[in-house]
Automatic annotation (TrEMBL):
Residues of the Thiolase N-terminal domain: 11-278
Organism this protein belongs to: Qipengyuania marisflavi
Keyword annotations: Acyltransferase, Transferase
EC number, UniProt record: 2.3.1.16
Protein name: Acetyl-CoA C-acyltransferase
Record bears the keyword GTP-binding: no
Length: 414
C-alpha cells in the first residue's frame, strides 16, 4: 500500500543573530524583554532581507514570562513595527526553551504547516518581577508575601509534594559533584577554560558576524551602544577562582559551586529564520546550516544537570549518528561540576581528544545564560563556528531545570 504520509521537507537555518549578553542589572537592564525581542526581530528582518510578509509565524521562548509582554513572539514582532497579519506565540522549556523554539519551527516547516518561521528567544532577568499569589481573593489581615520569580521559579521547578524541596539549581549541581566525584579544583579549572576561550573568541572577532549591537537610551546625550558580552572574566585564573567561597558552604562543607564556576543571570535576545529548502531561492535566503534531528528526555529533578546524557543517548538512537560523526559539541555550562558530570556520563576521559571540540568559544559560565535566549545564542555561535571549521555535524545540548535534557544535531550548509 502506498503511504499517504507526505515526505518531510529539509529545513534550513538562516541568519542566526544574537545581541551581546548583559550582566544581571547591567547594561541591558533598562530594556525589558519585549523590547529586546523587538530589537533582534527587526535586525533579523533587515539583515536577512526577508520580506516580513512572508514570515508565517513567530515563535519566541522565554523562561520568565510576564504580563507586560504576553505571547512575546507576537508582542515583539508588533513592537518592531512589522505586519500585523503575522501571528506569534511564546513557549517555555526552561533552559531548553530557545532550542525548543527552533525545533517547533522546524517541525512546522518539515510538515508543510509553514514555509518560513522566525524562531527566537529572549530573557531580561534584570526585569523579572516579584509577584504575589494571595492578593486575588483578598487578605483579611496580615501581610502579603511577594515572591521573587527568579528564585521562586527554581524552587518550584518540580512538585514539592512528590520530590520534596530542592532549594536551588545549585543544590542539583552539588548532588552531581558528589555522585560523580567532581572536585572543586576540577570545577574551577573548567571555569577558567571557559573564560579564557570566551576572551580568545572575542579577541579573534569570532562573534562579529552574528552580533546585533544594542542602543541603550540615556537621560542625557546620545545612546550608549552595547556591543560586547560583559560577563566573561579576562583575569580568570586558578587562584582567583580558588579564592571564591562556595555558595552553599555554610550548610554543606563539601560544596564546590561558586559564583565563578556557575553560569550567570543575564539579559539577551537571539533569533533566526527557519525555512523550507524549496523556498530559499524565492525568499532570497542563504542557509548556514540544516536542521537534522532532536530529542528530549527526563531525569531526576534533584540531578537535573545530567539531562544531556539521556537526551543525547535518545537522539543518537533515533538518528543513527554517534560521537565519531560529531565535529563540534556545545554543552551549555549551567555549572562546571554539571558539565564534568555529563562528560563522565558520556564516557569521555579527562584527556579525551573530543575536549577540543567542546564549547570552543566559551559557554554559560563565561558568555552567560539568559534562559530563554541561551539555545539560540548557542546556535548562532555554533553555526558560524561550523562554517569556520568546515564541520559537517554539530551537537547542541543542555540540562533543564526540573529534570530534563535536550539535544539537537545540525548539519553544515556547504
Amino acid at each position: 500500500m502506498t503511504s499517504l504520509r507526505p515526505a518531510l521537507r529539509r529545513v534550513a537555518i538562516c541568519s542566526p543573530l544574537r545581541t551581546p549578553v548583559g550582566k544581571f542589572l547591567g547594561t541591558l537592564a533598562p530594556l525589558e524583554a519585549g523590547q529586546l525581542g523587538a530589537i533582534i526581530i527587526k535586525a533579523l528582518v533587515e539583515r536577512s532581507g526577508v520580506d516580513p510578509a512572508r514570515v508565517e509565524d513567530v515563535i519566541f521562548s522565554q523562561g520568565y514570562g510576564s504580563g507586560e509582554a504576553p505571547a512575546i513572539g507576537r508582542w515583539s514582532w508588533l513592537a518592531a513595527g512589522l505586519p500585523i497579519e503575522v501571528p506569534g506565540y511564546q513557549l517555555d522549556r526552561r533552559c531548553g526553551s530557545g532550542l525548543q523554539a527552533v525545533v517547533n519551527a522546524a517541525m512546522m516547516v518539515q510538515t508543510g504547516a509553514a514555509d518560513c518561521v522566525l524562531a527566537g528567544g529572549v530573557e531580561s532577568m534584570s526585569n523579572v518581577e516579584h509577584y504575589t499569589t494571595t492578593a486575588r481573593h483578598g487578605a483579611r489581615m496580615g501581610d502579603l508575601a511577594l515572591w521573587d520569580r527568579l528564585t521562586r521559579g527554581r524552587l518550584m521547578s518540580q512538585p514539592v509534594e512528590r520530590f520534596g524541596v530542592i532549594s536551588s539549581m545549585i543544590e542539583t549541581a552539588e548532588n552531581l559533584a558528589k555522585d560523580y566525584g567532581i572536585t572543586r579544583e576540577a570545577a574551577d579549572a573548567f571555569a577558567v577554560r571557559s573564560h579564557q576561550r570566551a576572551e580568545a573568541a572575542w579577541d579573534a572577532g569570532k562573534f562579529d558576524a552574528q552580533l546585533v549591537p544594542v542602543e541603550i537610551p540615556q537621560r542625557r546625550g546620545d545612546p550608549v551602544v552595547f556591543a560586547r558580552d560583559e560577563g566573561f572574566r579576562t583575569d580568570a585564573t586558578a587562584d582567583s577562582m580558588a579564592a571564591l567561597r562556595a555558595i552553599e558552604g555554610r550548610t554543606n562543607p563539601d560544596a564546590i559551586v561558586t559564583a565563578g564556576n556557575a553560569s550567570q543571570q543575564n539579559d539577551a535576545a537571539a533569533a533566526c529564520l527557519v525555512v523550507a529548502e524549496d523556498r530559499l531561492d524565492e525568499l532570497g535566503l542563504e542557509p548556514i546550516a540544516w536542521f537534522h534531528s532532536w530529542a528530549a528526555a527526563g531525569c531526576d529533578p534533584a540531578r537535573m544537570g545530567i539531562g544531556p546524557v539521556p537526551a543525547v543517548e535518545r537522539l543518537f538512537a533515533r538518528n543513527g549518528l554517534g560521537w565519531d560523526d560529531i565535529g563540534l559539541v556545545e554543552l551549555n555550562e549551567a555549572f562546571a561540576p554539571q558539565v564534568l558530570a555529563v562528560l563522565k556520563g558520556w564516557g569521555w576521559s579527562e584527556n579525551d581528544s573530543r575536549m577540543e571540540q567542546l564549547n570552543v568559544n566559551g559557554s554559560g559560565i563565561s558568555l552567560g545564560h539568559p534562559i530563554g535566549a541561551t539555545g539560540l545564542r548557542i546556535l548562532a555561535d555554533m553555526t558560524h563556528e561550523m562554517q569556520r571549521r568546515e564541520v559537517r555535524y554539530a551537537l547542541e545540548t543542555m540540562c533543564i531545570g526540573g529534570g530534563q535534557g535536550m539535544a539537537a544535531v545540525f548539519e553544515r550548509a556547504a
